[in-house]
Protein 1
Amino acid sequence: MLITHIIGARPQFIKAAAVSREIAKYPEIEEKIVHTGQHFDANMSEIFFQQMKIPEPDYNLEVNSLSHGAMTARMLKKIEKVLLSERPDWVVVYGDTNSTLAGALAAKKLHIKVAHVEAGLRSFNRRMPEEINRILTDKISDLLFCPTDSAVRNLQNEGIGSDHLTEIFKSGDVMQDAAIFYSKFSCKPEFEIPEKFVLATIHRAENTDDPQKLNNIFNAFQKIAEKITIILPLHPRTRKILPQEIKKISNLKLISPVGYLEMIYLLQNCELVMTDSGGLQKEAFFFQKQCITLRDETEWIELVDHGFNSVVGSDTRKILFAFSEIKEKKNDYSIDLYGNGKASERILQKLLS
Ligand code: UD1
Ligand code: UDP
């Protein structure tokens, strides 16, 4: 059996690392990796392949820094060429980026079976490019690997699966597999780290592309930084757009993106997480930290339902209120929300069945 992963953005390297590690246990499976090139800086791409020992990509399509339409179209054309020569049994796509949609669409048009890992997530906000990528990918995939019960429900509510063209399978979340496996290799970053700090990230287009929202969030960070250091690895999208004066806020430590092993160290040692990232909301839970989500909605609603995550958007006062409340919270993190590290194993067994 030949499985081809199509990946291109940072979180996809992490997800594919977990699945690829599982594939390596099956001698009867051959895998190929197609890197679309969507993320390309060494600290957004190469470092993950090195640290997580992901096999070198068999193809790098070098499609990056384009508008949504141009990027997806160029990926589609180049992926099609690869798939025509490789003819895999399965194409596996991950998450909700432009690389996900291009991979699924290219494969389906060639009648190649598509498995979507992290299927069924919905924010119900169709202004998010990721929401469009998810809806379309879920609609055309053959096998939908859902991380959660709510993801399964979302698909059922859309009638997906009822036509027997698509199968829904609750696998759990491969990001938890990665967090569990790589946590023993966590690595202290090469800069001074205070005993107590908040770990923050910001990259979501709805925040970076709206100067008012971005300003509100950093106003809150400035106030919080008067009490505790904030360490914020800056996504290139945010680095390009952040005004100089924000870069000078004292106690707000803006650093370059770090590798996954450094990120795990920061997660293990922080007091709490503040983010608009999808993946980081769950990792806060995996590492037993409270999360304040700087978006108006989340796809990971079970974290909110169980009190692990406060979704506050970009309103300065709401962010500060959530921050002031968080110290009081004592949570039991033993609940199994994401499959406890067995998602990749279930995915492989299903693909082989
Ligand atoms: C993409 C995904 C988003 C995901 C995020 C993970 C889409 C629509 N969005 O958003 O769902 O959460 O990745 O991080 O696919 N850039 C660099 N160097 C890099 C990577 C990006 O300079 O290595 C720059 C690009 O030139 C571009 C900007 O960052 O100007 C945004 O990159 P892009 O891949 O378009 O979207 P992301 O915001 O990274
Ligand atoms: N991450 C990382 N280094 C960083 C910032 C994030 O390794 O400097 C990891 C993070 O731990 C998580 C993933 O990247 O595993 C999340 O990716 P991102 O926030 O870019 O995308 P999203 O999950 O929002 O799609």
Note: The pocket of uridine-diphosphate-N-acetylglucosamine (ligand 1) is lined by residues 9-11, 38-41, 44, 64-65, 96-98, 129-130, 203, 235-237 (CB under 6 Å).
Protein 2
Amino acid sequence: MKRIIVTGGAGFLGSHLCERLLNEGNYVISIDNFFTGSKENIKHLFDNKNFESIRYDITEPIHIECDEIYNFACPASPIHYQRNPIHTFKTSVLGILNMLNLARECKARILQASTSEVYGDPLEHPQKESYWGHVNPNGIRSCYDEGKRGAETLMMDYYREYNTDIKIIRIFNTYGPRMNENDGRVVSNFIIQAIKNMPITVYGDGSQTRSFCYCDDLIDGAVKMMNNDNFIGPVNLGNTYEMTVLEFAKKIIDMTNSKSQIIFKNLPKDDPIKRQPDITLAKEKLNWNPNYKLEEGLKKTIEYFNNYINKI
Ligand code: NAD
Ligand code: UDP
């Protein structure tokens, strides 16, 4: 039985990852400061004797014996990572430094949840791993983008200096049940607004594009990457089906039979105009391909938010 640490284990993706790793017969330790995560996301795991949840901030060093570390701790939505930008930056940079030191001490393998944001507002489309990005170093998104870029730097330097066993995945927009309802992300915002028949808030003219990956597919890719012995990454994980935000708003209205109207609001500063992963490398090295069609994943997510809203 492997002893696996999941930082950010009480968050949206972290909680799905803990569940998956427990189902595969591992011992799982979630480390989370509950900044955006919640006990609600992991309460169904509390009775599992192979699960532990620790409230802790990864910007502080920690020592726990382990075989693998998945570093998922970091607020991911723009409104949350901009709420305390200095702490966001520290979480990415000091957090990964502490986790790399732990991996080194324990001779553990470590996987970093990096992001498509390392490409910034990309000038190459779709984005390949070889693209260095187009990132504002001092704008309102920089605490996240540059923090994640700095984390990749540390991962690679620990690999080159100490031969630490590292893996880097770059996650593109991922959605699904247990997204935080106050996240402000497009998927949760539009679904909640549509269910409540409230105006759907499209930022800008809605012509910016995103590609949405269902959480189960993403977790599958992350686990495949961790279990791969020959490839350190970075590797893009995401769905290649790209659409405009306006098209996405219409799809959600349609799928929820909502009476909501679309309204237009100011586009946030530095909002990337387009984003679509090139996943050739993931297919080749990991034999990974997202399975969920957008409608299938959205159906599950809408069901989740319907139940959630009816409960509160
Ligand atoms: P989330 O906000 O739901 O989860 C992040 C978790 O990390 C939360 O439980 C939060 O409480 C915890 N956390 C934050 N700072 C911490 C700290 N200093 N110490 C300990 N715990 C801390 O977000 P998510 O969507 O589940 O994202 C998980 C990871 O995946 C993040 O690293 C994020 O950058 C990355 N990612 C996600 C997406 C996406 O579309 N969901 C895209 C790219 C990258
Ligand atoms: N967006 C929107 N309305 C919302 C929330 C987001 O139009 O209520 C847009 C946002 O401006 C961006 C896209 O949807 O262009 C994706 O935003 P999100 O915050 O989900 O993730 P990002 O990819 O920007 O990190």
Note: The mean pLDDT is 97.
